[in-house]
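Anyone opening a protein record will find just a pair of labelled lines. A complete record is shown below as an example:
=====
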Amino acid sequence: MQDLIYPSSSTSNTLHLHEEPVLGELMHGVFRNLRRGWTESLAPFDLTPHQWRTLSMVSRHDDGCPRLRDVADSLRITPRSATDVVDQLEAKGLISRSPDPTDRRAILLALTAEGNELINKVGSVRRDQSEEFFQVLSADEREQLSSILRKLSAS
């Protein structure tokens, strides 16, 4: 396992130009390429990655309407930054806010009909893009990769 983390020809943890990249660098490079494509796919919909992630999070929230704090936690950003993202989405007519009946200080978020429609459109484009990105892998390789990534995500 150590050979996958650091090149075996190296006596230190320093990566030299003639050596193979370490596993983490390979994963980062693949993710960077995938993320770049995803970001480009959002442009025609006039969405930023944070806006998309917010819409997606609100659409998938298990306990009904999420609070603004839930968005901040999910995106790993400050509540003030989450407020900015939600303000932008509300201005576009994609999210609505309502007072939380159980906590007058809290605001609940919900997708509007336009927001739901956009989630479906963008989701379809992103699924197609992911399919295209991973088409270089066989079905068995995709299944193996999925299994490995699930295991790593759970650790």
